[in-house]
Amino acid sequence: MFKAKTITFNSETYMLGQKYKPPGFTRMATVTNIVDNRNTFSHNEGGFEVRFDSGDFLRIYSNDVVIHWEQTGGEKG
Predict the structure, then answer these.
(1) Distance between CA atoms of residues 36 and 23, nearest Å
(2) CA angle (37, 19, 5) in 5-degree steps
(3) What are the extents of the domains in the chain?
């Protein structure tokens, strides 16, 4: 199984555990999770969510992103 460690889009990179102030946010927040929701949105638009400790999230409706994955659990090979 794999978990997203970083996501880059529009020349901005968000990494798990790091603090950011994304566009539209009023204060800094720490990234707690990066979720691949491409199969849940209608019309095949694709999408990702960057979730923050503040309870806010940044939704990305694009497949033009770069994701760095890390393996979690199981055997690494």
Answers:
(1) 20
(2) 40
(3) 2-71
